[in-house]
Amino acid sequence: MATSCPVGLDIQKLREEVSFIYARVAADPGGDFHFHRGAEYAAGWLGYDAGELAQIPVESTASFAGVANPHAIGRLAAGATVLDIGCGAGMDLLLAARRVGPSGRAIGVDMTPAMAERARASAAAAGLGNVEVRLGDALALPLDDASVDVVISNGVINLTPDKSRAYAEIHRVLKPGGRLQLGDIVVAHELSEDIRNNIDLWTG
């Protein structure tokens, strides 16, 4: 199965299109998109706890567009440092911050400025002082080597043009014995070159 984009794909255009789509989600989460969004979707389809989500600012949960529930894989320990790759408006990030507590840290990385700002504002509104949001890319994470205990990500690695590099970055920033809690989309069969070259299919 391919782990990188076709040679002819315009990577910069792909990045711009992905960022454009998610900037729209940040600005108008109720708009017309091909993917599901919001707290009701997260609780009803993906197994998130509705009570927990109600304690997070709606500005964060409304723009949630994940595909699974990485928190269901394992409980985050108090005091842990957690990285959320592609944190978006911050729903998973804020859940992580609440679970690791004031002695822990929750660091979000997102390449879309509008989403990063939404996550920062939501963390402030929730009174979570252990949250930091950085602009950055999954292929060049703005973190030191061996600096986090757990990496979470939700529906983001599939959008990266080089999966091998993305996983190498995850390995780089994880402490020895750290873990990855990943929710994402996979395909059962190799996609054709034409499909993989179609940016509209990458972004929906």
Helices and strands in order:
Blueprint: H1 11-27, H2 39-46, H3 50-54, H4 58-61, E1 81-85, H5 91-100, E2 105-110, H6 113-125, E3 131-135, E4 148-154, H7 163-173, E5 174-183, H8 193-196, H9 199-203
Parallel strand pairs: 1-2, 1-4, 2-3, 4-5
Helix pairs in contact: 1-6
Cα shape: globular
Quaternary state reads single chain
Order of helices and strands: HHHHEHEHEEHEHH
How much helical structure, as a percent, in the residues? 25-40%
Portion in strands: 15-25%
**Structural class based on helices, strands and sheet pairing:** alpha/beta
Q: How many strands appear in the DSSP assignment? A: 5
Q: What is the count of DSSP helices, taking H or I runs of 4+ residues?
A: 9
Q: Would you write up a description of this structure?
A:
By secondary structure, this protein is an alpha/beta fold. The protein has a single domain, classed as Vaccinia Virus protein VP39 (Rossmann fold, 3-Layer(aba) Sandwich). Helices cover 38% and strands 16% of the residues. The protein has 9 helices and 5 strands, in the order ααααβαβαββαβαα. A 5-stranded parallel β-sheet has the order 3-2-1-4-5.
Annotation keywords:
single chain, 204 residues, alpha/beta, Rossmann fold, 5-stranded parallel beta sheet, 38% helix
Short characterization:
The protein is of the alpha/beta class. It is 38% helix and 16% strand. It has a single domain, classed as Vaccinia Virus protein VP39 (Rossmann fold), CATH 3.40.50.150.
